[in-house]
Inverse folding.
């Protein structure tokens, strides 16, 4: 582990009282909170552990530290071991999570970040922990805003990182966004602890490292961390207002169907300001299709096509008018196939929490029902409730196959079931998408008013 250097004006450690106020602003904690910290071994995350350990102990809660070994550097395993020893000395439970499999050549940092978040979230779910604390700080926020500004981001991007974000079953919190990197290092020094310096932080291959090298020049032009964080606060306030308006529109217009599709009432959708309508449409597409951010131009074309009575495909979804409503259904060609073992549980197609019963003797393939599956097995048996669904929705229902034989359609929301040989349905699939239609409002870090 190596020592580091604090920046100007960053000579004071973060106090327990300051950290307590930052945590209070995040709200939403149980009486005896269980919290996990993503611990890289750097000064920022180590300071977060020190502060969180005290905060949790005061409330009778528990703390688990999680380190992801990406395996990208030869010394990463030794570093993870050193972190584990440091946590043992502090008396803090610790786990090492390993990123297995092949690593991409292009977009390595983004892929590593995604793998890290996935491994951390899975570990939290396994441990029954709701809150995952990450050590992003004021300088990280400033770099994020600057990167997004360079890429031409709009209001959402310039709002930077959220202090609280729901990520599936895990609540990601960033209590250090109001504190500088220098103060966090001083917090470690005050406790007599050293930390690991990640060499990638200085590698000019990566955009963030190049920005750090240009920090003095940018600051001399007035583009310092304080100014960039002020941009994030202002953009965050605008984003929060837009998201609240979008939530109001969805509450008025959207219906979520247990078979994995959504309908939107056209009158309020088309009457809404274009920005709000586009956001509502994007959230419906994300919930059904699992798509990430979509280009504004593509969303605008789709909204215009719907207003003209047509529709289109976007984000893995088919969107069209159906019985007087805007139907957002999964695109059949985009549905995944996946093997599931007896008794297994998976998130199938990014939409369904699917559980396979133990009655099967071997792994089965979960795939879309399709036209052939409907005609050959279900259409003949007179399942009237399934028959009333739009054809597109029926065709993308999860079904269980062994080779070319369809064996069952897992029960959906307790309403449907088809099983071979007259057996009672014991398999279950519940529409529980990764991207929720109703999302918590974006939180804004403010020096004056805490978090709003």
């Amino acid at each position: 582990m190596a020592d580091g250097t604090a920046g100007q004006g960053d000579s004071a450690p973060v106090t327990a009282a300051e950290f307590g106020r930052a945590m209070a602003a995040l709200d939403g904690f149980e009486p005896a909170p269980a919290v996990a910290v993503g611990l890289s071994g750097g000064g920022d995350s180590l300071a977060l552990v020190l502060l969180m350990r005290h905060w949790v102990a005061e409330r009778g809660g528990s703390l688990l530290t999680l380190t992801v070994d990406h395996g990208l550097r030869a010394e990463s395993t030794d570093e993870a071991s050193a972190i584990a020893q440091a946590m043992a000395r502090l008396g803090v439970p610790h786990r090492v999570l390993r990123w297995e499999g092949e690593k991409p050549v292009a977009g390595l940092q983004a892929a590593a970040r995604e793998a890290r978040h996935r491994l951390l979230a899975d570990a939290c779910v396994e441990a029954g922990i709701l809150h995952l604390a990450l050590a992003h700080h004021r300088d990280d926020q400033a770099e994020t805003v600057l990167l997004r500004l360079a890429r031409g981001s709009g209001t959402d991007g310039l709002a930077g990182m959220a202090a609280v974000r729901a990520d599936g079953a895990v609540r990601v919190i960033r209590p250090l966004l109001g504190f500088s990197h220098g103060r966090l290092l001083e917090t470690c020094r005050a406790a007599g602890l050293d930390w690991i310096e990640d060499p990638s932080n200085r590698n000019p291959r990566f955009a963030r490292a190049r920005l750090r090298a240009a920090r003095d020049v940018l600051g001399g032009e007035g583009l310092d961390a304080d100014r960039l964080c002020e941009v994030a606060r202002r953009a965050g306030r605008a984003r929060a207002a837009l998201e609240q308006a979008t939530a109001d529109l969805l509450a008025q217009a959207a219906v979520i169907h247990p078979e994995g599709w959504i309908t939107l009432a056209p009158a309020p959708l088309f009457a809404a300001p274009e920005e709000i309508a586009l956001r509502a449409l994007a959230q419906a597409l994300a919930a059904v299709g699992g798509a990430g951010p979509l280009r504004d131009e593509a969303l605008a074309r789709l909204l215009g096509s719907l207003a003209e009575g047509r529709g289109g495909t976007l984000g893995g979804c088919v969107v069209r008018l159906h019985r007087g409503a805007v139907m957002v259904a999964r695109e059949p060609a985009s549905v995944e196939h996946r093997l599931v073992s007896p008794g297994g549980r998976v998130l199938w197609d990014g939409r369904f929490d699917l559980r396979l019963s133990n009655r099967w003797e071997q792994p089965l393939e979960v795939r879309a029902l399709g036209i052939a599956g409907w005609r050959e097995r279900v259409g003949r048996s007179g399942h009237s409730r399934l028959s009333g669904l739009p054809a597109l929705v029926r065709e993308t229902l999860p079904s269980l196959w062994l080779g070319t034989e369809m064996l069952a359609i897992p029960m959906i929301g307790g309403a449907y079931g088809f099983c071979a040989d007259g057996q009672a349905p014991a398999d279950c699939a519940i529409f529980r998408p990764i991207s929720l239609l109703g999302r918590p409002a974006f939180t804004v870090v403010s020096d004056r008013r805490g978090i709003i």
